[in-house]
Structure to design on (580 residues):
């Protein structure tokens, strides 16, 4: 009461002597404040401070964490997601679940968005492990929130968290092994594909085929089977333009050996553009070679002329529709062709034509095996890749480089229904990224074992470093407990007592031994094929700790919209809050 009285006197004197207007003084005192949005003309912005800010974020974090954590492990459950368009989506992919969750209460949604950032960052760096990263971030923030609420200094907690993460990363390196053969790579892919051995074999062989620098695209298939295709040359996911140019009407394919390649900048359709087609056909006929016509579109009179010569057996031809100009120039580099918009400027058409050993088309794709050296074009694309920060652009550039380097493959995911295809596609993408990471950086024991073993190092720090401040020690303890949570969650999802499983594994001295939730056994994880890429585990703990520790140190949350926000009313205690 005394502090409350003093506060009122101070505010009164501030108003009297003009140090601050009444509205400003009230705003300084308020714990939860509405600030009018005078610039935007909206209803205003709402700010939460202190424990209220962290508690509102925690509510959102816990809700999204529970939804994601139920998918973890071989016996984890699926999540059904209602979509605005199309059928509901069924998935076990952590980042897909996280991205689908939005809350009406915008303060809770702030916490959910930050957790989505953890999952998204882990997915972009490692391509897998998003569920584990979400669970780690959830528990680190939840335990940190409790510690701050009981008086711990959030900055010292963060220092302890950072110290613990550094020690865990060091210990993970001691557990790492390189991938020695195809069997180990199949194990990695199978685990990430939720135990589907057939998918694991397809993915592992595809990754080994194209190497760590290759690119594997994943598309919806047209059959019930999942298949992988690799072309030793430039390719596109666009099939034949017309069945009039097929060479095998039964198999629905077009196959031409040693064709010349003509690439135009625009379309081939009008009578004027027929004059571009005719010299190319004449050259090909004179040299007894087929022709690959590459354009944005081929239609009308130009198409009729190409079909007529093909059917008459004069010049066998195929047409490739490539809408993107950059990709047409990629093909030009692979075949030695020049991209032109007006052939009339060149008296000798041969200077424009490229060459290929083979051109093949089916219903879904086209492959052109060029004979030219595309290394200069590859270096250009690699420079663009290094400078790009956009995830989609980087993926597109990587795919184009792989096509020119002849290390590009396509996996078409099959299924009986669209829902099944969608669910399988999520698992294939996770397994594909995990296999790449394993081949590149190595593997550690899976099933949460690597993090659990690394957490034992933190016990030594906590017990031996007597000079460490208590709040920093609490931060280390938070990470130590969080590192044990993935195995505990996997065991809980398998229907057994997670804490018991964790303690049993800790008591086993062999660092490679963990818990096989699928068979309810303790075994050597390397021998059992239950392994994780070290890049995935490393990214999980780094990303989760980074975002969670920043959330712990949050003192205010700003919301741009009042709709749906249930904010505590503490106006009766405004002045008292100022002098806490």
């Amino acid at each position: 009461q005394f502090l409350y009285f003093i506060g009122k006197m101070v505010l009164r004197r501030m108003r009297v002597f003009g140090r601050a207007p009444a509205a400003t003084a009230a705003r300084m005192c308020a714990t939860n404040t509405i600030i009018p949005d005078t610039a935007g003309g909206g209803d205003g912005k709402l700010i939460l401070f202190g424990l209220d800010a962290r508690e509102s974020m925690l509510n959102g974090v816990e809700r999204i964490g529970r939804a994601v954590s139920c998918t973890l492990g071989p016996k984890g459950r699926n999540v059904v997601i209602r979509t605005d368009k199309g059928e509901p989506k069924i998935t076990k992919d952590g980042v897909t679940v996280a991205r689908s969750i939005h809350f009406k209460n915008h303060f809770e949604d702030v916490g959910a968005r930050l957790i989505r950032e953890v999952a998204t960052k882990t997915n972009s760096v490692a391509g897998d492990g998003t569920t584990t990263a979400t669970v780690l971030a959830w528990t680190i923030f939840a335990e940190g929130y409790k510690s701050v609420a009981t008086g711990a200094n959030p900055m010292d907690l963060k220092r302890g968290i950072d110290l613990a993460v550094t020690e865990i990363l060091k210990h993970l390196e001691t557990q790492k092994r390189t991938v020695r053969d195809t069997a180990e790579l199949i194990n990695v892919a199978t685990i990430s594909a939720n135990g589907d051995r057939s998918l694991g074999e397809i993915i592992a062989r595809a990754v080994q085929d194209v190497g760590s620098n290759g690119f594997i695209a994943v598309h919806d298939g047209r059959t019930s089977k999942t298949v992988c295709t690799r072309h030793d040359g430039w390719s596109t996911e666009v099939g034949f333009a017309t069945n009039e140019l097929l060479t095998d009407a039964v198999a629905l394919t077009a196959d031409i050996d040693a064709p010349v390649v003509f690439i135009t900048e625009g379309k081939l359709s009008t009578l004027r553009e027929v004059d571009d087609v005719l010299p190319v056909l004449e050259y090909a006929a004179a040299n007894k070679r087929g022709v690959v016509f590459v354009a944005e579109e081929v239609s009308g009179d130009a198409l009729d002329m190409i079909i007529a010569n093909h059917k008459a057996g004069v010049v066998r031809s195929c047409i490739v529709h490539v809408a993107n100009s950059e990709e047409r120039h990629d093909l030009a580099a692979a075949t030695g062709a020049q991209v032109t918009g007006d052939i009339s400027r060149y008296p000798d058409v041969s200077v424009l034509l490229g060459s290929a050993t083979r051109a093949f088309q089916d219903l879904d794709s086209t492959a052109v095996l060029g004979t030219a050296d595309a290394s200069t074009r590859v270096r250009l694309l690699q420079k663009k890749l290094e400078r790009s920060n956009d995830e989609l652009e980087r993926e597109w550039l990587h795919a184009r480089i792989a096509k020119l380097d002849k290390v590009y493959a396509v996996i078409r995911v099959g299924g009986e229904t669209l829902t099944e295809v969608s669910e399988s596609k999520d698992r294939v993408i996770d397994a594909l990224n995990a296999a790449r990471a394993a081949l590149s950086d190595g593997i550690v024991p899976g099933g949460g074992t690597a993090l659990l073993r690394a957490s034992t190092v933190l016990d030594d720090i906590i017990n031996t470093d007597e000079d460490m401040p208590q709040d920093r020690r609490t931060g280390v303890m938070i990470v130590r407990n969080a590192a044990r949570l993935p195995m505990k969650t996997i065991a809980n999802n398998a229907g057994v007592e997670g804490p018991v499983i964790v303690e049993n594994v800790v008591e086993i001295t062999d660092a490679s031994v963990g818990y096989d939730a699928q068979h309810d056994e303790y075994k050597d994880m390397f021998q059992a094929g239950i392994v994780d890429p070290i890049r995935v585990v490393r990214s999980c703990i780094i990303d989760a700790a980074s975002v969670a520790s920043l959330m712990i140190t949050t003192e205010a949350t700003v919301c741009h919209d009042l709709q749906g926000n249930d904010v505590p009313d503490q106006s009766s205690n405004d002045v008292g809050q100022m002098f806490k």
Remarks:
- Residues 1-31, 34-41, 569-580 have pLDDT under 50 and may be disordered.
- The two ends are 12 Å apart (CA to CA).
- Residues 418-441 form the longest helix (24 residues).
- The CA atoms of residues 95 and 119 lie 5 Å apart.
